[in-house]
What we know:
This protein is an alpha+beta fold. The protein has 5 helices and 10 strands; from the N terminus they run ααββββααββββββα. The radius of gyration is 22 Å and the shape is extended. The relative contact order is 0.08. InterPro entries: RT_dom.
Amino acid sequence: MQKLQNVGIDNPLLGWIKSFLTQRSLVVKIQNSSSNPYPITSGVIQGSVLGPLLFLLYVNDISDEFKHGNSFIYSNIQNDLNRLDNWCKKWCMCLNTSKCGIMFIGNKTLPGPFQLNNTSLKVIDSIKDLGITYNDHLSISSHVNSVTSKAINLEYKTQ
């Protein structure tokens, strides 16, 4: 609710959203048996229309934690990661650090390891983002090769 107020949402809309997000519970039903209700204390209803918008408002200020985005100094980058970790703890947002990594764009690398939530981040050389795979030189050639290969295989299967 505090985040919504921070972006200027007030009553009656704030009260409506609070009603939407609070005093919810879940029940698990298997065949004819149902569990006791279990209170839901955080999150939004999956598949709801408001879910993506509320999530974006929730994380809207996360970029404020990055003060040294263009820096190639290890201590500055690690400080930004520490600030990100503190933001996540403050707002009760858990990151799955096993799915986090660091990628150096171009030929530069920095000594590490970089850490997030006391976990060393693995150095990666490619990433898939919004369905497109690109590498540490911002090349999408492996993505193009993969898509082309799938298209060729599909063509042969339909003949």
